[in-house]
Design brief:
- The chain contains twelve helices and 20 strands.
- The chain is globular and about 80 Å long.
- Helix 4 (112-131) packs antiparallel against helix 5 and helix 5 (186-202) packs antiparallel against helix 6.
- The chain has four domains: 2-94, Phosphorylase Kinase, domain 1, CATH 3.30.200.20; 99-254, Transferase(Phosphotransferase), domain 1; 293-322; 336-464, Fusion Protein Consisting Of Minor Coat Protein, Glycine Rich Linker, Tola, And A His Tag, Chain: A, Domain 2 (2-Layer Sandwich), CATH 3.30.1150.
- With 466 residues, it is an alpha+beta fold.
């Protein structure tokens, strides 16, 4: 179906929303990367659905969802009707999600601590909806999303509790046994949550023994006891006996988290972490599920921060002294380099933060193999903790760049395919911002920028290509 939807790339919806790139779709919907200038959003997600009678109620659901506000629900900005060619569609414009749980599960299962930390924001969002007599309606890994450092539930499936579920969607393992002849309910969301928890821990949804229907799910013996109890209750055949989202949230918050055990880093190649959109579908999560900080870590962080402040003050004093002694040097710094060193990364939720290192022309970085000083400005990706938590060992990305006479990067490309498109994209975007010394000898030069990503952060260095 991708060809059917991809043909609409480049079209403009109602004069407001350009379909910049097709992100993914199904038989009945397509998702595109767009922008929303009225909200100052350079990136948003737009979902198109054919305007057929069976789906007309969806437009009112989207309009109602746009009025909701909760930190763990994807924001809905606008919904409406549009026409493309001779076809009528309804559409919804939503917050652009970075990743989804369905992207990481094919690579690895989550740990019990990760699942516990994932459950708390999910249950907070569900409890909010259920208090408003609404349901999420299609809780599953593809609808558990991350925007920046926030874990959120998809909002385009929200509907009133009690609405008939007959014929609305194709039945799946995530649907409760009463869905075939009942309606959407909070208890149905709880059932879907139980299935999702098992899949997050094992990479597979639970199975039910043949000829026993939904009576007793067969769960792996390796599941932690606390989560087994929650799953058993969520998968109770009787909806009235399933716990509410608020009850589960309170229970998890009251249980102390197990101490964190330090494990040496492995040198085994890392499985591909959650892809950052727009490579895959807009709907897809986090390596995050970051453990909550404990007070000893906070004290350590404060101590480290204090040392860094002192070091920064010393470095600033030394640099100021050097600058005052060498006015010619300060005047010779190119304007674009000076600006880059003082500007902060964009606070927009779609920006890719990075760490800038700008050097005066008389103190450029040396490249390996005793090459002459060449680098004036380095840009190092500042990888979110959610993505760093998926790294086991090291991820190395080599980016070949072409530099013009003035020292600007005019082309950047990853030298060879790597398993992680996410880290390849971060490296390429950072490489385009490097600055080299100017040269009148040739029109362009070739450099290789070598980035390395670990759980502790990222580094980068340059090597001249002969």
């Amino acid at each position: 179906m991708s060809e059917v939807w991809a043909k609409w790339e480049g079209h403009l919806i109602n004069g407001m929303f350009p379909l910049r790139r097709f992100l993914g779709g199904s038989d009945h919907s397509g998702v595109f990367l767009t922008e929303f200038q009225a909200r100052n959003l350079p990136n948003a997600a737009l979902k198109l659905v054919p305007a057929i009678p069976a789906l007309e109620a969806q437009l009112s659901h989207w309009t109602a969802a746009a009025a909701l506000s909760h930190p763990h629900l994807i924001r809905v900005f606008k919904a409406g009707r549009c026409r493309l060619g001779d076809l009528q569609f309804i559409f919804v414009v939503m917050e652009y999600a970075d990743q989804a749980l369905s992207q990481i599960l094919p690579q690895r299962a989550l740990t019990p601590d990760e699942v516990r930390d994932m459950l708390i924001p999910i249950l907070s969002g569900l409890a909010f909806l259920h208090r408003e007599r609404l349901v999420q309606g299609r809780l599953r890994p593809s609808n558990i999303l991350v925007v920046g450092d926030q874990l959120k539930l998809a909002s385009d499936t929200i509907r009133p509790a009690g609405e008939s579920s007959a014929g609305s969607v194709r039945s799946s393992v995530y649907d409760p046994p009463e869905a075939s002849d009942g309606g959407f309910s909070a208890a149905g969301d709880t059932w879907s949550l139980g299935v999702t928890v098992v899949e997050a821990l094992t990479q597979h949804p639970p199975a039910w023994p043949v000829n026993k229907g939904f009576d007793t799910a067969s769960l792996p013996a390796s599941l932690p006891p606390m989560l087994v109890g929650i799953v058993r209750q969520c998968l109770n055949r009787d909806p009235a006996d399933r716990p509410s989202a608020a009850d589960l949230e309170g229970r998890l918050k009251s249980v102390p988290q197990a101490p964190v055990v330090s494990v040496p880093e492995s040198t085994v190649p890392v499985p591909q972490p959650l892809l950052s959109l727009p490579e895959p579908l807009v709907r897809e999560l986090p390596g995050k599920i970051a453990p909550r900080e404990k007070w000893p870590k906070q004290r350590l962080f404060v101590a480290i921060a204090g040392v860094l402040v002192v070091l920064l003050a010393v470095w600033t004093g030394l640099r100021s002294s050097h600058t005052s002694q060498s006015p010619e040097t300060s005047r010779s710094v190119p304007a674009e380099v000076s600006a880059s060193s003082s500007s902060a990364p964009s606070a927009d939720f779609k920006s890719v933060p990075s760490r800038s290192i700008t050097r005066p022309p008389d103190q450029p970085a040396r490249s390996p193999a005793n090459d002459p000083p060449s680098v004036l400005h380095e840009e190092i990706p500042d990888v979110p903790r959610s993505a760093r938590n998926t790294i086991h060992g090291h991820i190395k990305v080599a980016v070949r760049v072409t530099v013009d006479r003035s020292g600007n990067v005019i082309h950047a490309a990853v030298e060879s395919p790597i398993s992680s498109k996410y880290f390849a994209r971060l490296a390429t975007e950072a490489a385009r911002k490097w600055k080299f010394v100017s040269s009148a000898d040739q029109d362009s030069r070739k450099w290789q920028l070598r980035f390395e990503f670990t759980r502790g952060g990222a580094t980068g260095r340059a090597a001249a290509l002969r």
